[in-house]
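Worked example

This section walks through a single chain of length 147. The input is the sequence exactly as stored; nothing has been trimmed or padded.
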Amino acid sequence: MMRVRAGNSASGYSVDTALVERVAKKIVKAVGAGRPVDLEVLFVSDKYIRILNKRFKGRSCATDVLSFELEDVGSIAISLDTASRNAKTFGTPLHEEALRYVIHGILHLFGYDDDTKLNRTKMAGKEDGILRVLCANTDLSKVLTRR
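Given that input, the structure is written out below as tokens.
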């Protein structure tokens, strides 16, 4: 059984949580999850992700995405403020940048790591492939918009 819940507490952004939930399920299937999955995807502000990063990782800064596995539940927190800045920096649509973080977080939950240059390259390749398939098969432009 797979349950996915999405929520948004980042002001200034509208998120189609039902679409995020459907897309996250597709991502989990693409990663090859053979076990039951209970996943929550939370879109937050830089301020909130900074608090999470300090509390759980010991780092006093905002970041793009954090992944947590607590017993049978995987949680992903994504900063939409950081996604917005990075989308401008990399010239990507905001919704694609945010979905890249959903993919990245799910990959972490399924054992992928980005602790070395080689692992970062492998993980980025996997992210690119999943994002390419998602974009080809689903109109993702409505996942996220700025208010």
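What to look for: The longest strand covers residues 37-44.
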